[in-house]
Amino acid sequence: MMPPYLNKVESATYYYGNLEYEENTDSWVIEGEPCVVEMAKRLFPGSSGRGQGKAKFKNTKRINGDLNWLMQRYPLIIKDKEIWNKSYKQVVEYVSKRDEFLAYPKKAVPSLEFKGTLKEFQKEGLAFLLHNRRTLLADEMGLGKTIEALSFLSATNDYPVLIVAPPHLISNWKNEIERFLNPPVEHGKNINFLDSTNVHVIKGLKSYDLPKASVYIIHYLLLRGWKKYLTYFGFNTVIFDEVQELRHGKTEKYSAASLIAENVENCFGLSGTPIYNHGGEIWNVLNIIDYHCLGDWDSFTREWCYGYGNDVVRKPDLLNDYLKREGLMIRRTKKEVLSELPPKRRIVQTIDFDSGKYSQLIQNAIEKAKSIDFVEKNFDKGRLVREVVNEGRQAIGITKAPYVAAFVKMLLEAGEKVLLFAYHHAVYDIYKKELKQYNPKRITGLENSKSKDDSVNAFMNDKTNLLIISLRAGAGLNLQKATCVVFGELDWSPAVHSQCEDRAHRMGQKDSILCYYLVAKEGTDEEIQEHLGLKVSQFVGIMGDKAESKEDKNISQNVATEHMNKIIEKLKSKVV
């Protein structure tokens, strides 16, 4: 049943002015008597045309529905009837489907080219995105926002797409695209999928002529330098990952994001935590996604908050209901979809690292690797091999540590309780420094029994949400309050990782545990991944789910030796 405000005004005895379409700005312009113009400006506070006699506002489904409602009271002569009738038809279809979706959630499936499988709640998410082309996907962390966004691209072929993400997630987006999609080589729809490498990562603050691609990825810190270029590039879709990066207005990256979003057909924000502090931050986020969908700032703070300029929302639950009802946001929590989730989910995620610093740190290991062939005694040679591999592990651990910390910060801001595992003390120190504001506690093997117990008690009694633990020092700990396990460094033994996971996955744990393996594309991570059976193209590692026995340790060490030799050969081939 069509809502009354969408009943079409076919004719009237009196018209208060004209409604005309302005093609170059994709806007509707009212020109008429003061009563209708004043009412239009009150109804659309963000309308341009501040002078007398005119009001101009963007051509969107939401605004056009309100425009029809306005014309029921103040009929207007429509100058561009064909364009208006087409827009009106889209509004009616959109509202009807939206109301139907709210009453009976739909499910959609991606195209045959999509290389993944969606869970049932993710199919509902895809259907929601297909119908609401400007919206906030606010599912809790770990529920697959990335895969839902990529399934949308698979279903629509709405390329070229710009993905804006934090720096530490750039590599992961590239890998996930290659894993789930085959972006077409040519822009446009209804074309054959040919290649999985048609992705360009934008680098540097200074703009350059972008190569032809279907997917472009940029991080938020670069947006200010690319504002003019990207605004008019001709994207069909923009995806703002971790869109809470735009929760503060009046910044250069916010201005750039706003201009880019204004010129695309599909605009999605992804975040499990779109606001960090005051509820008013949601206005900034949604104003990027759908301009003035919550009115202008003054009207939003006046009506939703505690008065002009105040950013504390008076009734957050009411705003939440409104956003969902209007198709501006979809949010599912782990508890709501727990029946569809396995008790333990392993996610291998590529993380960036400081390649320049890595080149410096690895030089000593390279020199040692080149000297191994000249060592005669097997005992000395074996010791040197272990030293080289350990130095290589430490080098990659140190250089990716700030990016691991940024990832963990994202989890902590989302309210997760995190166990962060690593191996080297130099790496622990970086974590502690980078995450100092979260009052991290440590169990690294150097602490006495009291200090270790104090750290466990602080975590279990909610005095901290972050516990940094050595991969080899977590045996016997009962930390079932954790919701996420993060491996910033890897161990050679599959069973060690499983044992670390089980510090959280224990009796009393009611949630589905997320276990993140943060790996770099270079350095020793690649060989350890191969040894563990952990591939970036898999969600689930094929690691053993049992404690490490002496036999397991021996088998693991024998196989690990083969991979250590590969590391040595790679280091030998490097030029100092």
The CATH topology name of the largest domain reads Rossmann fold
**Which structural class is indicated by helix and strand composition?**
alpha/beta
The CATH homologous superfamily of the largest domain is named P-loop containing nucleotide triphosphate hydrolases
Q: Which architecture of the largest domain per CATH?
A: 3-Layer(aba) Sandwich
Number of E-state strands: 17
What is the residue-mean pLDDT, rounded to a whole number? 82
Which percent range fits the helix content? Answer: 40-55%
Low-pLDDT residue intervals, each spanning 5 or more residues: 187-197, 535-549, 551-557
Shape descriptor reads elongated
Q: From the alpha carbons, calculate the radius of gyration and give it in angstroms.
A: 27 Å
Plain-language structure description:
There is one protein chain. Helix 5 crosses helix 6 (170-180). The chain has three domains: 4-96, no CATH class; 115-336, Tandem AAA-ATPase domain (Rossmann fold, 3-Layer(aba) Sandwich); 344-573, Rossmann fold (3-Layer(aba) Sandwich), CATH 3.40.50. Helix 8 (252-262) links the parallel strand 9 and strand 10. It is of the alpha/beta class. The chain is elongated, with a radius of gyration of 27 Å. The protein is built from 19 helices and 17 strands.
Task: Give the arrangement of secondary structure elements.
Layout: E1 17-22, E2 27-32, H1 34-43, E3 54-58, H2 61-73, E4 77-78, H3 81-103, H4 120-131, E5 134-137, H5 145-156, E6 161-165, H6 170-180, E7 199-201, E8 215-219, H7 223-231, E9 237-241, H8 252-262, E10 266-270, H9 281-289, H10 297-304, H11 316-325, E11 329-330, E12 344-350, H12 355-361, H13 363-371, H14 378-413, E13 418-422, H15 425-434, E14 441-443, H16 449-460, E15 466-470, E16 484-487, H17 494-501, E17 513-519, H18 525-532, H19 550-573
Parallel strand pairs: 1-4, 5-10, 5-11, 6-8, 6-9, 7-8, 9-10, 12-17, 13-15, 13-16, 14-15, 16-17
Antiparallel strand pairs: 1-2, 2-3
Helix pairs in contact: 2-3, 4-5, 5-6, 7-8, 12-14, 13-14, 13-19, 14-15, 14-19, 18-19
